[in-house]
Amino acid sequence: IRTNRNGAGELAPTNANKPDATASTDGDDGEKTTVSAELLEYFAGARLERESDRSALSEECAMIISDEEASEADKTAAADLAKSLETMAKAETEMEAAIEGRGYEEALVFLGDEGSVEITVLAEKLDETEATAIANIAVESASADLDDISVKCMF
Questions:
Q1: Helix, coil or strand: residue 110
Q2: What pairing do the DSSP bridges indicate for beta strands 32-36 and 22-26?
Q3: pLDDT digits (tens, 9 = 90+) for 23-81
Q4: Is 10 in contact with 150 (CB distance < 8 Å)?
Q5: DSSP letter assigned to residue 19
Q6: Rounded to 5 degrees, what angle do the CA atoms 144, 92, 90 make?
Q7: CA 135 to CA 23: how far, in whole Å?
């Protein structure tokens, strides 16, 4: 597992500077936690960009599949890629839900082409136990190798 660490051995936030715009949410312990609206927008924007990129690639696959001049090999490759994109999107969504089910307000998962998994959670810090638990979600859901998983937190 690749992580960002601070001097105390905890996962350090990727964004140490808190922007001015904030939103308050109730933490698990009932205390108010101030969360940057900019960070919430980051997660939403990154998800939207990921979906937009995949949608464009899926459209390209559909065009190849429907192209009468495309070879059968190209059509098969495009169909395989389209199915793979669909599988990846479903796995990312399921992993995000599982991570958020552990009490995180936001989680973002990116599955790479070569089996890499990048996980970002909205958290002030993560200890080794929690980072491992999050990484294990990717191991179980995507059959990823721990060496190919990156877990980081943002706050």
A1: strand
A2: antiparallel
A3: 444 444 444 455 678 888 999 999 999 999 999 999 999 999 999 999 999 999 999 99
A4: no
A5: P
A6: 110
A7: 28
